[in-house]
Design goal:
By secondary structure, the protein is an alpha/beta fold. The chain is about 30% helix and about 20% strand. The strands form seven sheets. The chain has a six-stranded mixed beta sheet with strand order 11-16-15-14-12-13, sandwiched between helices. A five-stranded parallel beta sheet has the order 4-3-2-1-10. Strands 18-26-25-20-21 form a five-stranded mixed beta sheet. It starts with 10 loop residues before the first helix and ends with a strand.
Length: about 750
């Protein structure tokens, strides 16, 4: 939902603001106030605010949802607004900040929020692709650039990172998270928070982060967005909450409550989540914002009786700010006057919001320097970072006969596919502040990579229409044109997948098939007998089971962003050696869902002779395992060593292995460590990721990779004990390059004497 430009600023404001901004730009932005200083200043403000002004700070608005008789200017002037959502025009932001600062009684600036998910003006690979990099430092850099661009434009609050674990790829928002694993998800959550916020809240060129959606939103029934989730406490604690905890430990300033019912209690009215776990257990000191209209929707859930009851339940559960619905604005004053909500509780809810504004420096620097903003948004070095990120997130799934990398001396090449020359599709669904004209398509990237002497032919091949079309799209004549073009060239690059709006919010699917006639297009082109490379543009695993045995080379490129076409060409022609790994288990068909590597054992070992397959009409195994990805070179992992075979509870264990590049190219390997507890107070998954490191090695080079395991790696939430436990038991340990790692050792945790 994109806010519209709604009102031209008065002439006087247009005249004065450049003067104010010029003076402001000369000021040196110092360190933000300490927590104690920010609290003192917030308490001073609270002591002078009316009840209505306090509740205004708990209200976030969308212009397009205002009643006709009320303008945003008037609400801000009356102190009825604390935050404004989905504004990116610096002139409009300056206009509204002027009203808040100069025309409201308390002179409190607005906090401008926006969905800065994977970039602002520069669009980076989608978060699922970021996770495929297995490179937290890269992810930190990505979100730091996004924060710099957003901050320069006046957006000081990002509604990211989304850290929901997703084990059902039918769910559209799998694209927005880090996949299926809590350990990898926690690493990505931590990196994104640091990237957005910097070393502390209020760091120069950084913004406030929001970890979302708390909690269990990624496990809806049937993979249907917004539907109810049912999670046992141990599943919630062991799988779905760890990335949120990592974000809180990293200092995230805000948390977004989720839309859906969790175990029959709406998450935005769930005191257990928002109070008992988030604040009491984890010590979270920031504020909670509801997802859009989630407060008023407590009534829709059949949880609240009416709007007043919805406001009471959300507030009592721990939601500080009402996003969009204005239910707090309308109902909280009467609840206070009736004695149902205490004035002290209102102060406690408002205080962290005011402290965040103070720490972000909004009171001293509320306005946007439009000249500086334009310079930042056009920064060419940001595009360099994006190109590197897009190439580092690519995952090579197949490379038969070492078809890739392609030679730059090709005399002819055909590029086929409805996504090959699409700028919009390469951005992904969360790209509202970007300029699609800046996106480099795959076709453009290939043309820029090859000499003018190479004959490059482009054929769309088929078209993709939005989901819900019941008929396959694309005329057969276009497939025929594609086949003819493929026959004329040395190599064909097929660029297929999903449109940008086929993955994301409200984009769940009942099928994982390639939309339209893309599957038929693949078979027709492969039938020519010419070499074929398949490049996938998508935000979820798709059914490529046939392609996985018939197409020689397959590259997962995700929605790669602004420089996506150049980055894909870098990988296809060997200027970059792909090193990404899958952040999820890739199913063979939708019938295998949910499929994930960290499942529990059955009553018979799956390797035993008497094991009966779960399916009689197909294998249990995935198409590609979690953590999988190929390279243009080869690696060998050996010499697994533990510094001891026994470790005390609360002790630590050192683990090492040697990695060698046995091929003839420099490349990256992601070394992964998995554990399994053999017995204890609960059955444990067959293996769980507990360590990883991405390393670069030259041909023939070796490196010793070291991990340290301690209580946080060896503990789990026990459903029988109903607490976190570290148990004196035997553990299996594996190191390798994906979740099927075979290099194995055993150690034992001993009880304390």
């Amino acid at each position: 939902m994109i806010a519209k430009v709604f009102r031209v600023a008065p002439v006087l404001i247009c005249f004065l603001l450049p003067i104010v901004l010029a003076a402001q730009s000369k000021q040196t932005i110092g360190a933000p106030p300490s927590t104690a200083e920010a609290r003192h200043r917030a308490d001073s403000l609270l002591s002078r605010m009316t009840l209505e002004e306090k509740i205004g700070q708990l209200t976030q608005i969308f212009f397009q949802y205002f009643p006709d008789e009320t303008t945003p200017d008037d609400r801000i002037r009356k102190g009825q607004v604390g935050s404004y959502l989905f504004l990116t025009d610096p002139k409009v932001i300056n206009h509204l900040q002027h009203i808040a600062i100069e025309e409201s009684r308390m002179h409190i600036p607005l906090l401008i929020g926006f969905d800065v998910i994977h970039g602002f003006r520069t669009i980076f690979p989608v978060p699922l692709a970021m996770a495929a990099s297995w490179d937290p430092k890269l992810v930190e850099q990505i979100q730091s650039v996004a924060a710099e661009e957003a901050s320069a434009a006046g957006v000081k609050w990002a509604f990211a990172p989304m850290v929901d674990i997703a084990r059902d790829p039918r769910w559209g928002r799998i694209v927005e998270g880090a996949g299926e694993d809590p350990f990898l998800g926690a690493a990505m959550a931590r990196a994104q928070v640091i990237g957005f916020q910097g070393p502390y809240l209020g760091s120069t060129n950084h913004i406030l982060a929001t970890v979302k959606h708390f909690a269990g939103y990624g496990a809806p029934d049937g993979g249907r967005d917004y539907d109810s989730s049912y999670l046992s406490e141990d599943l919630l604690r062991n799988v779905y909450l760890p990335p949120f905890k990592a974000a809180v430990d990293a200092g995230v300033g805000s948390v977004m409550s989720a839309y859906m019912d969790l175990n029959d209690i709406p998450a935005s009215g769930n005191r257990y989540l928002l109070h008992d776990v988030l604040r009491n257990e984890w010590g979270f000191q920031g504020f909670v914002v509801s997802d859009a209209f989630a407060v008023q929707d407590l009534k829709t859930h059949g949880f609240a009786r009416d709007a007043s009851d919805a406001a009471y339940r959300a507030f009592a559960a721990g939601v500080n700010m009402d996003m969009g619905s204005k239910t707090y604005l309308a109902k909280l004053p009467d609840l206070v006057r009736q004695g149902k909500v205490s004035p002290l509780a209102i102060d406690d809810a408002v205080r962290p919001l005011l402290m965040a504004k103070l720490q972000l420096g909004l009171f001293e620097h509320p306005y946007v320097d439009t000249v500086h903003a334009e310079e930042v948004l056009k920064a060419t070095d940001h595009r360099v970072v994006e190109r590197n990120a897009a190439s580092r997130t690519a995952v090579l799934l197949r490379n038969g006969a070492q078809l890739l990398p392609l030679k730059k001396t090709l005399s002819s090449l055909t590029v086929i596919g409805p996504l090959a020359d699409s700028q919009k599709a390469l951005q992904g669904s969360w790209s509202f502040a970007s300029d699609p004209a800046e996106v480099v398509t795959v076709l453009q990237g290939i043309r820029a990579k090859l000499p003018a002497s190479t004959h490059i032919e482009y054929v769309e091949g088929t078209e993709i229409k939005r989901e819900f079309d019941t008929e396959e799209a694309g005329p057969d004549t276009e497939i025929g044109r594609a086949v003819d073009a493929a026959r004329r060239s040395e190599v064909t690059v097929l660029v297929l997948g999903e449109l940008d709006d086929m993955s994301g919010e409200a984009a769940s699917r009942s099928s994982l098939e390639l939309p339209g006639k893309q599957a038929a297009l693949i078979k027709a082109v492969v039938a020519t007998g010419k070499p074929v490379v398949l490049v996938l543009i998508n935000g979820r695993p798709l059914n490529i089971t046939w392609a996985s045995t018939h197409v020689p080379a397959i590259l997962e490129a995700w929605y790669p962003g602004t420089q996506g076409g150049n980055a894909i060409a870098d990988v296809l022609f060997g200027d970059v050696n792909p090193g990404g790994k899958l952040p999820f288990t890739w199913p063979r068909s939708v019938g295998q869902i949910p499929i994930y590597y960290a499942h529990n054992l059955t009553h018979l070992p799956e390797t035993s002779e008497g094991f009966v397959s779960r399916y009689w009409d197909g294998p249990n195994s995935p198409l590609y395992p979690f953590g999988y990805g190929l390279s243009y070179t080869k690696f060998a992992i050996s010499n697994l060593k533990l510094d001891q075979s026994h470790v005390k509870i609360d002790g630590s264990l050192g683990v090492s292995a040697i990695v060698e590049n046995t091929g003839d190219r420099t490349g990256d390997e992601v070394v992964q460590l998995y554990l399994h507890q053999r017995a204890g107070s609960a059955s444990r998954p067959v293996r769980v990721l507990q360590g990883f490191e991405r390393i670069k090695l030259k041909p023939g080079e070796t490196k010793t990779v070291r991990f340290t395991l301690d209580k946080k790696n060896l503990s789990f939430w026990s459903p029988s004990e109903r607490r976190w436990v570290e148990e004196p038991e035997e553990f299996d340990l594996w190191i390798g390059d994906d979740s099927t790692a075979a290099l194995h050792a055993v150690f034992k945790v001993d009880p304390q004497k």
